[in-house]
Design goal:
Layout lengths: L1 H18 L4 E7 L5 H5 L9 H7 L1 E3 L2 E2 L7 H10 L3 H4 L5 E4 L4 E4 L8 E2 L18 H8 L6 E5 L3 H7 L5 E6 L4 E5 L8 H8 L2 H5 L39 H8 L9 H16 L9 E7 L1 H9 L4 H24 L5 E6 L8 H6 L5 E2 L3 H15 L5 E5 L2 E4 L1 H6 L4 H12 L5 E6 H6 L5 H8 L9 E5 L3 E2 L13 H4 E2 L1 E5 L5 E3 L3 E2 L2 H10 L19
Parallel strand pairs: 1-10, 1-11, 2-20, 3-21, 7-8, 7-10, 12-17
Antiparallel strand pairs: 2-19, 3-18, 4-5, 6-9, 8-9, 11-19, 13-14, 14-16, 15-16
Helix pairs in contact: 4-7, 4-21, 8-11, 11-13, 12-13, 15-17
Length: 538
């Protein structure tokens, strides 16, 4: 009898443990969201979007990326794998592949075919990511009974979060305005996606002007409209409201929606369609929906961090979040959904704007310094093409020529680094050998090291001065190891999460291991295995 009681108690506890898991995990990544956007626009947010997430959720106010470069591909890979580029291998959006001597895109895969369009936009897969994601571990744990679906405007923002075992990843095809996928996931689009595409939702959003959501005087957290730091849409004379989207389609195609807040609305609509089409959160096996809102990045690049366009985009995203949270409440229940919201990187204020306000900033024009570097290396080592390529502040040397001449790679790297320090805007020049042979625990060099993959990365890395970028003089960009690019929001909400906040410094790479811990599954295989202490209800 005692033995029977023990057995029944065991299965009772097991049943309770299974019931106590969320039915659905929703990962939300807001592309290029600086941490200060929450506080800056707070007064104009609705009560049901960002304010609800923070008031009812657990807010990590000191969350940072711990590597360089801070781009979309590495960001999404790191959030979902819990690893840094040194391990998961997604060292940038594009990088120079020494074996084929050309640039490689982080999710391109020539062996795949497009599903949902007659072009190459779907020749993608996660094959270049070397680690598992927590979605992969969830699928392994449940013997494939958990579903993993990813939705975004950008292919890399869907493919990498979906992981290697994702059921499907969907992204927007700019020519048609439809969501497409890759043959990596299956031979055809699910019927619910085909049905969604037939609704022409994209065309509907582009059928009206982009006007300010609120009266213009409410946008006092932004610069005046049509500032010198903004870039107009193709076909538009000035970058100012209202933006006549129907007339701009001719010059920009349907991909125009990506650079408007309505791209986020379209993503939200597709996310809801995915929940309904895939019956997410309806059985006893936890599902994952990865949603990336990409329009914030496109708008930020074009208009900068202080434009009315970026403020309006966040106010409209806030309303989309309010609508999405209400949908989850009504159809799955807050107590059944675990949500985290973060970003893949931040952004720098437009350097031209900072310079006009006497803040040190600038633009590094690499073409002439690299030309001089090539001549410098020829003067030392003789005639030859000593530099293969330069991009993303990384210099790839001609290793074949170096070895052919019986030269020391370490010496040529150091000569290159020393020479590049001569130029304005270059704060540090660090060699690959330095990153290989040392272990840095803090600061910029530690960030470089965590972004360094011995097989894929460059020979010399440049660290520009704060607020120096390689970009046009309008809009903004990202990629550095400074806090404006690394410090991003991180909010936990729903399920058993207790309201509160912490200013303790946490890493974005801690998200994957924290979710894994909450679900009781294995950490992703490259995870740094740090868990954020989130208070849970009893």
């Amino acid at each position: 009898m005692k033995r029977l009681f023990v057995i029944l108690s065991f299965f009772s506890a097991l049943a309770c443990a299974q019931v106590d898991q969320p039915k659905l995990v929703v990962g939300i990544v807001v592309d290029q969201m600086r941490f200060d956007y929450i506080n800056r626009y707070w007064d104009d947010y609705s009560e049901g979007g960002f304010k609800r997430l923070i008031s009812e959720g657990y807010n990590c106010t000191n969350a940072h990326f711990n590597y360089i470069p801070t781009y979309t591909g590495p960001g999404h890979a790191s959030i979902y794998s819990g690893a840094t580029p040194s391990s998961h291998g997604i060292i940038s959006n594009y990088w120079y592949d020494r074996e084929v001597e050309e640039y490689s895109y982080c999710v391109s895969d020539a062996e795949m075919n497009t599903v949902g369009a007659e072009n190459g936009s779907g020749k993608m897969s996660p094959s270049k990511m070397l680690n598992t994601t927590f979605g992969d571990e969830l699928r392994l744990f449940s013997m494939n009974r958990s579903k993993v679906i990813a939705v975004a405007l950008k292919d890399r923002s869907a493919v990498l979060p979906a992981g290697h075992m994702g059921n499907f990843a969907f992204w927007l095809e700019s020519e048609t305005g439809d969501f497409v996928s890759s043959s990596y996931y299956g031979p055809r689009l699910p019927k619910w996606v085909q049905k969604f595409n037939k609704k022409d939702v994209c065309e509907g959003y582009l059928s009206h002007k982009w006007e300010l959501l609120l009266p213009s005087k409410r946008y006092d957290e932004s610069l005046n409209d049509n500032s010198a730091y903004e870039e107009a849409f193709a076909g538009e004379k000035y970058p100012k409201f209202p933006h006549d989207l129907p007339s701009l389609i001719e010059h920009n195609g349907k991909g125009l929606i990506k650079g408007t807040p309505f791209g986020n609305s379209l993503t939200k609509d597709m996310a809801i369609a995915a929940i309904e089409g895939e019956n997410l959160g309806e059985d006893s096996f936890t599902d994952l929906l990865a949603v990336s809102f990409s329009s914030t990045d496109y708008v930020g690049h074009q208009f900068g961090t202080d434009a009315k366009e970026i403020q309006d985009t966040y106010l409209r995203l806030d309303r989309d979040l309010e609508s999405f949270l209400s949908y989850l409440d009504e159809n799955i229940g807050k107590e059944n959904v675990l949500i985290f919201l973060t970003s893949d990187h931040g952004a720098v204020r437009t350097p031209a704007y900072l310079k006009d306000r006497n803040i040190p900033a600038g633009y590094f024009e690499a073409e002439e310094p690299i030309r001089e570097l090539k001549q410098f290396l020829q003067n030392i080592y003789g005639f030859g093409d000593w530099v293969k390529t330069y991009g993303d502040a990384q210099i790839f040397l001609n290793r074949e020529l170096i070895f052919e001449k019986y030269l020391s790679l370490e010496e040529v790297q150091q000569q290159t680094a020393d020479f590049m320090l001569r130029f304005d805007g270059v704060q540090k020049a660090v060699t690959g050998r330095t990153l290989e042979n040392n272990e840095f625990e803090a600061g910029i060099l530690a960030c470089l090291q965590k972004g360094f993959n011995q097989k894929r990365s460059a020979d010399v890395f440049l660290v520009l001065d704060p607020a120096w970028i390689e970009y046009s003089h309008t809009g903004t960009t990202h990629g550095s190891g400074y806090t404006y690019d690394r410090h991003v929001p991180l909010i936990w909400y729903g399920w058993n999460i207790k309201a509160g906040s912490t200013s303790e410094k946490v890493g974005i790479t801690d998200i994957a291991s924290t979710v894994s811990s909450l679900l009781g599954i294995s950490f992703p295989n490259g995870s740094e295995a740090n868990i954020i202490s989130i208070p849970l209800s009893e």
